[in-house]
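As a representative case, we now present a protein record of this kind.
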Amino acid sequence: MKVTNTITRVLVVSSMALTVEQAAASTGEIEQVNVTAQRFEVDNSEYPGSLSLIDDEALSAIQHRHIQQALSRVSGVSLQRGEGQEYLPAIRSPVLTGAGACGAFLIAQDGIPVRSSGFCNINELFDAHTELADQVEVLKGPGSAFHGSNALHGVINVITPDPLTSRDFIQIESGSNDFSRLKLGVAAGEDNNRIGVYTSATRDGGYRDSSGYDQQKITVKHHYADSNYSIDSGLTFTNLNQETAGFITGLNAFKSSSIAESNPNPEAFRDTQSLRVWSKISFDLSERDQLLVTPFYRNTDMDFLQHFLPGTPLEENEQDGFGVQTSWKHIFNDQLHLITGLDFEYAEGSLVQSQDEPTQGSAFLQETIPVGIHYDYDVDSTIIAPFAHLSWDVSEKLNLTLGVRYEDTEYDYTNNTLTGRTRDDGTECGFGGCRYSRPASDVDSFDNFSPKLSAAYKVNSNVLVYSRLSQGFRAPQATELYRLQRDQQVTDLDSEEVNSFELGVKGRINRLSFDVSAYYLEKDNFIFRDSSFFNVDDGETEHVGVEVESSYAINSQWNIATALSYARHQYEHDQFIGDINIRGNDIDTAPRGFSSTRLSYSPSDALGFELEWLYVGSYYLEPENLNKYEGHDLLHLRGRWDVSDSVQLSLRVENLTDRRYAERADFTTFTDERYFPGRPRSVYASVDFRW
């Protein structure tokens, strides 16, 4: 296999280079700390796994309008954008779609998942306050013992500003397509009792017809410390009102500016609000014991028109819940420490799907997709998860860690309308019955156990070689269990499971910093909708890849950095689509290669420029592997000028060469090729005041 050969070559070359310890002299490496891996601060250079950090300096340079623009700097991560704030994610995976696709990724803010694991949303990063993030941390592959369901392919954790260290600021920004944004942050108080308020308001007029959005977010942080404990509390509220633009159809339709700017679904919209409140209470019990208790509350409420479905039904969903994370850290001695705890959460979710107008199209569609209520259900979920993480320094150079997590998930489902596939008044649909099927009220439970084992070897003070063997899981989402179609009256789904092996090396040699990793990941019980429109769990997939993140200081003024990914994602189960068995095929919307390469030039401390080259390779549009998107290359140019210590001006030109491209491409039997077109050349400017 070509992928396996590539991995072998990379690892052999890396091993040969690293055996020469004298080549890695100390150069004053800057410590980078993450909290995603273990909840307590961990030096990222010593973490035995692939965890990438986008720090405040990088986020300030990017000034992303969409979180995709920041995450493109992380190898192995790919987001395909829709218009507005929508996207489809991938972390060491293809770009996943479908009712439960969001369950493959754990999205968190300040360590707390933004949604309950059974009620994820594929776009839920728009609920996090990424616009004012201090740092974004991305753990690739199955999560650690501190992460449960949904940390299947990776974790994205958005870290908001710390009132103890953040400067006061106000930023005003304007750009193409009537884009404007205001950011504001202020903090007050003493070091042991300090509060900060951080807010952003964005307006985007949209590149396409009848599109655009207004979005407001506010985060309030408070820090209080006493001699033996500290309390860090926060509140985040977000609001999004979006006019959504749908797919355009036709081979290479994105290359026509008039078609690309059109919107076949001018009636589509998405309105959503979210609220999260939390406190992290840290107790220093003794010199060897520390306790962290994090109670939280969260609520989300979203209405959106499903423009991608026949009949364009309206979905109204809501979830309301609370929980607590507990972690106790005990240091036995300088070589051995243990972190153990218990996580609990309870959530009440609801979903209503309804249609006001008759379905357009064929007689079959008109008859099987009726006006009225399609689904109306409530689900109460309870999750209890004990875990333990043991770290042992076997010697000065070798560290071993063992983690385990057990998670019990229960869904109490109540159907609030008629059971079966009738209309909401009980009458039958023609052609064998209505499209949407509502199962009877029931209780479902899922038990999952996931072990983790890793080893890290310090070649010297600057270079770490690591390996990691881990399992991940996700319980089925409520929509997969209770939002059925056609003849399916009940599901018999198990949790998706992933087995992953990773080998990597990271560190710094002179002016080069690097993180190279290779992974093999196999997924069992992959949940998908089969040709009978049944939700089933007999899918298997395989994922093999190599990732490189590096930065090289050419001299004091020039720097080049890159994030490279090469992987193959394949179907490993037998499934016939027509007369084609997709076993062994590439999974659709899974480019084998993609990268971000940045050349930076700073002629002085006050002036800086960056040219970024984004590459997305070709990929198949459907499981049969009959149609392809050709891929694309984009250039972005950024510049900033520090007028003084308090004032900064910045200018960004996105899609510098005005390339016609597709943010997303796929293929359906109803529409053939369809695309989310990318934006043409766009210019944005901002002024930033700090004090």
The CA atoms of residues 342 and 386 lie 4 Å apart. The chain has one domain: 2-22+35-690. Residues 2-18 form the longest helix (17 residues).
